[in-house]
Write a structure and sequence with these properties.
Helix 2 packs antiparallel against helix 3. The strands form two sheets. This protein has a five-stranded antiparallel beta sheet with strand order 4-3-7-8-9, with no helix packed on it. It is elongated and about 75 Å long. The protein starts with 5 loop residues before the first helix and ends in a 5-residue tail after the last helix. It is an alpha+beta fold and 183 residues long.
Length: 183
């Protein structure tokens, strides 16, 4: 009679179930968040997360596509009241930008990606100007589909392999479980 340890035998199943969960987990949002909006070539951000410290609410930074840190972006000091703080950038060219708000106590109020599109031509004054809408900082955009970032073939193949191995591990587990005479 062979004695096996159930915990040791269930290890691959637990790993197969935990791996997709670990890969899809996102870090928690820092603070209550921010609200970013655009009107033509002006980008503005609003938050209520910052407290005034030494006469300053904090700083907001607008990062372009080639910029990766807060210090590299166009920085503007927040202004407002204890209920709402705002900052704005004018003359922003069309493109995708990331807005980061740092409070005066060095905590991040939030991060959000925004797309600035071309404004309407001067001859089309009867129509409202085309404005950009905020897009999620991570994940898939709603609608017809499409990701925030274009992932290559290797990434898609690796994801398919993970899903396939999870399906195979689940089928193996259920098959082994359905036959109680096997140890």
């Amino acid at each position: 009679m062979r004695i096996s340890q159930p915990l040791l035998r269930s290890g691959p199943i637990v790993a197969a179930a935990a791996l997709p969960l670990a890969l899809t987990a996102h870090p928690a949002a820092a603070g209550p968040g921010i609200s970013v909006s655009t009107t033509g070539s002006t980008v503005s951000v609003t938050t209520g997360a910052c407290a005034q410290l030494n006469g300053s609410w904090g700083t907001a930074s607008l990062l372009g596509s080639g910029q990766s840190s807060f210090a590299q972006g166009r920085q503007v000091a927040l202004s407002g009241t204890s209920a709402s703080q705002t900052a704005a950038w004018s003359g922003v060219s069309p493109g995708t930008y990331t807005v980061i708000v740092m409070c005066s106590n060095n905590s991040t109020a939030g991060t959000q990606t925004v797309i600035v599109s071309r404004s309407a031509s001067p001859s089309a004054t009867s129509r409202p100007p085309v404005s950009a809408s905020a897009s999620p900082s991570r994940g898939v955009m709603g609608g017809v589909g499409g990701a925030v970032r274009d992932y290559g073939t290797a990434t898609l193949v690796a994801g398919g392999a993970l899903v396939g191995s999870g399906v195979i591990a689940t089928a193996w587990f259920l098959r082994r479980r359905s036959k109680p005479y096997r140890f």
